[in-house]
Every structure is written in C-alpha cells, then in structure tokens.
Amino acid sequence: MMLFSIVAALGVLIVLVALRAPPFLAFVVAALCAALLLGVPLARIPGAIEKGIGDTIGPVVITIVLGAFLGKLIADSGAAQRIADTLIGWCGPSRLPIAMAATGFLVGIPLFYNVGFVLMVPLIFSIVLRSGLPAVHVGIPLLAGLSIAHGFLPPHPSPTAVVAQLGADLGVTLIYGLIVGLPTLAIAGPLFATTLKGIATPRSPLFDAAVASGDRARPGAFASFVCALLPVILIAGATALHYAPLPPATATAIAFVGHPTNVLLLSIAVGIVALGRSAGLTRAEIMDGFTVAIRDIAPILLIIAGAGGLKQVLVESGADKVLATQLAGLPLPPLALGWLLACVIRIAVGSATVAGLTAGGLIQPVIVATGADANLMVLAIGAGSLMCSHVNDSGFWMFKEYFGLSLRDTFRSWSLMETLVGVFGLLFVLLLDALLRLG
C-alpha cells in the first residue's frame, strides 16, 4: 500500500506537469495527495509541506541566485563570447569540435542553461558560415558541454539543491563533477559529433537572425576566463586546503572565504569591476541585468521548494524509511539506483530539474541505509536526469527549431547526445566510486 501511494503521488505529479501545470503547483498537489494516501494526520499536513519547502529552499537560495547574477554579468558583458572566440583561436580549424566542447563547458559553469543555449547559438552559426561545416556537427559539442555543466556542477540549481538534500559537500561534488564531466564530454561532444556530419541544416530566418552580432565592446580574454572560473577555483581550492595540516585559525579563515556564498559575492564584485568596465556597462545596466536574472531563476527556485514539500511528506509519514529498506534490497548498486530513478522521472516529465530533485528526495534515505557516497550520488542523479531528452523537453524543441531539423534528425543528434551524457556519466561515476574504494 505504501509503495502504491508513492507511485500514485508521482503519477499525479507527472500528469500535472504533462498538462502544463506550473511545476510548483504540481509538487504541492502531489505532496498533498501523498500525505492523504500515506495516512499523515490532517492537522500535520500543511505544516509538513511548509517545513519541507522552507528546509529545502533555505540552504540553496543564496547560492543559486548569486550564481544567476554572475552568469548574467558574464553574458551581458560579452565575456562568454570572448571565451569562445579565444578557445576557437587557440585550437584552430582542425580541432574545432574540441574548442566548441571546451567553450560549452567553461561558459556553462557560470551560465544558466537556457541563457547559455540562446547566447551560444549565434556563435555556432557564425562559425558555420566561416568554416562551411554542418551546423549540427559544430553545435553538438558545445551544447554537450552546456548540458554536462548544468546537470553535474554547482552552482547550477539542480546539483546545488540535491547537494543540500543529500547532505553532500558542495566543494567535493564540484571536484568530482569535473573529474566525471570531462571524459563524458569528450565522448558525447567531439567524438559523437564526428558521426553527425551528414545531417544538413536548412537555411532559415532563425539562422540569419542568429548571426547578427552587437557592437558592444568585449572584455579581454584574461579577465573573461578569470571571472568565469573564479568560483570553481576558489571553491575547489578551499576544499583541497581543507585536507591540509593548517593551524585552526587559518583553516577557519579559508573555510569562510571558500563558502559558496562568499565565493560568489567576491566573484560578482570582481566581475563588476573587471567585466562591467571593459564592456562599458553602466551601474544601472548591471543592476537591471541582475533583476532579469531573478526573474529567470524564480521558476527554478519554486520547483526546488515544491520538491522539498513532497520529500517532507515522505519523512512525516515514515514512508522514507520503508522505501529505503525496499530500494536497498534491489539488486542494483545505490548509485545506479539513484540514476535509474532520475532517468525514469526525466523520461516521464521532461524536466531535468524536476527529475533530479524528485529522485534526490526518494534516494536520500537509501544513502543513510547503504552508506553510499552522497557526493557521487549527486552526480549519478544528475546523469540520470539528462537521459533520453524527447518531445516533452523544452530543450529538444529549442534545438530542433533553431537548427531547422526534422524530428528524426533531432532524435538522431540531440536526444542521442543527451543519452550518451547520461550513460557515460553514470559509468564514470561508478568507476570513480570503485577507485575511491580502492584508495
């Protein structure tokens, strides 16, 4: 009965999302249904949902919003384009897929996925015009880099929220995400792109509009790279120094500076000075950009909050412990189980964020029961949440329409790329887990 109640609540969530209900509303209704089906006392249901929302959104809202501010600044200043131009210049025409993959990954670290997608499409089409290469062959490596950064790396919303859900360490997860993400990118990006040269992209008004570029000055390459990578460098550095034999006062100071909130505040301050001035952005333009970033990120924050409400209902009913016992008894490694849960939800609802957060709420008690590595579980869930993008995913349609493809060619390129990211992401997570156990 307990398992039926959870499946029924997830069914309500899937149906509501499929009917285009706002995901926050879908999560709240699903949480209410789960509470009623699981026998939570009526007087405790509203408080449980409210507690879950507050406990889930509280630890991550600052990191996600500040990350969106930094990404918007990098986009508006032209630093993302400067990074792309520089990497392509370094690699040259013969290694163009590698340059595009590196561009997508580096630009994807600070940029919210949809922003990075729309921002990089003009770059893809301008390179297509200069090189004469097929647009899909040029674009897939870059978009694979964006996707991997979105699914694996904090401070992106889903991995950041799942880190908090599972009690993982954000810095360690970031380092593991880089270790897993780079070989995954090599396979799903440049290597896979070699099979796509036969997919033709028709000329369209979208193509012509995308190659238009603005006249705003861009910051230099050094400043662009430093500002985009500063959060990664500081968080990873503070995490590495955590294991060094330092005096207590020094260790405390490093931990304070390396906290994601302080890292992002420092990165934004550096970006305002180094990027805003170079690009000629006024203070008002920068602040207006931050306001737009808040509007962009608000729906994601509500999804995270709603997922917390559903998770707390499972805790209040005691279903989390029963579910953990049943799931832990399945003949699957815990990391593969987390991946599978995220994969199934992703295929059903289309949203990687919804899939990741829902799977995180379901798998959290399994980590307690099995002792699985929470940091690697974040990455396994992230890989599962990117699997099998199809017609219920907005990214599928963005790619199809921008590149003017048929459904068949979109499945052949975009959907297969996302599936490769999910499959090889899991394989490299399992490999890293085995190496850590040997060590």
TrEMBL record:
Compartments reported by the entry: Cell membrane
Protein name: Gnt-I system high-affinity gluconate transporter
Transmembrane segment boundaries: 28-45, 57-75, 95-121, 133-153, 173-200, 221-241, 253-276, 297-315, 335-363, 375-399, 419-436
Family assignment from sequence similarity: Belongs to the GntP permease family.
Cited Pfam families: GntP_permease
Keyword Membrane in record: yes
Coiled-coil regions, chain positions: none
Domain of life: Bacteria
UniProtKB keywords: Cell membrane, Membrane, Transmembrane, Transmembrane helix, Transport
Membrane topology category: Multi-pass membrane protein
